[in-house]
Amino acid sequence: MLSGLSEWFWQERLWFPEGLGWADLEDRDGRVYAKAHDLWVALPIALVFLIVRQIFERTVATPLASLLGVKETVRLKVPHNSTLESYYCNITKSPTQTSIASLCKQTGYSERQVQRWFRRRRNQDRPSLLKKFREASWRFTFYLLAFIAGLAALIDKPWLYDLKEMWQGFPVLTLLPSQYWYYMIELGFYSSLLFSVASDVKRKDFKEQIVHHVATILLISFSWCVNYIRAGTLIMLVHDSSDYFLESAKMFNYAGWRNACNYIFIVFAAIFIITRLVIFPFWIIYCTWVYPVTIYEPFFGYYFFNGLLMTLQCLHIFWAVLIIRIAIRFLTNNVTLVKRQTKMQKKYTFEI
Q: Does the model's pTM come out above 0.70?
């Protein structure tokens, strides 16, 4: 049954244009092509990332946090109460007024004591600034190095400057060593993020982050299997180009450097909007959606690949709305502050 399912899943008509197939991607004459089994390499790489992250956070991020003035938050531990703890863990972290009255009868606590217990218990679970800083510094380091490495790998490639070149000779495109490692490292990193999601800081866009990680892993894996590697490297480069600015803004925010955080965030917002709302949809998606059908008939893999890209684009729009709101709030607050300072300065000058 499994062999039949595998045979159906990998049938050529799903993943290749008519007249092409897996035989076209067999190594020959010294030319090497991407293979599906290569993707297993990403699993040990993900494990290495998880180990390196622990070492990095303890030996690099923690001293850096101390240098920037980020301190571990000391929170009061609530007195142990099995009834309240069971309710907190199994039912809800924020009980209703009716539930509080019931818990008062079960524990002998007053209403205020129960409310205080739950408030302190919630605070006890909140991640500290130091944990957030270490997580942001790890991601900042990876995204920055990944962007530099990706740019170095693509700087001399013709498809970086003429996107139509990504389909020149498709699917018989020779795999380069730089493409191999760029793919495996990116896939390993996003796999490690998926593995560590339970222990990472839970943010408001937690569900969207999960969708993003899964879509990215599927996109990288699929583009590797059917030799959409040139398109894949461009997509990864576009995504890495702004993420390190966001993580650095978070680092300065946790350190209390508000001005540095705000200005870096504005730079991030500008780059994010240009790369994710302009370059990605109007250049890259255009070249994967419109141009290929001038070369061959659409097939399932064509729709699947572009469907994943559209999923990412929907997430980009969602995040762009949040980013623009934050940027507008920052600019509005700055204008108000400048007006207030100008008014005070005029008043002081008049009094003199």
A: yes
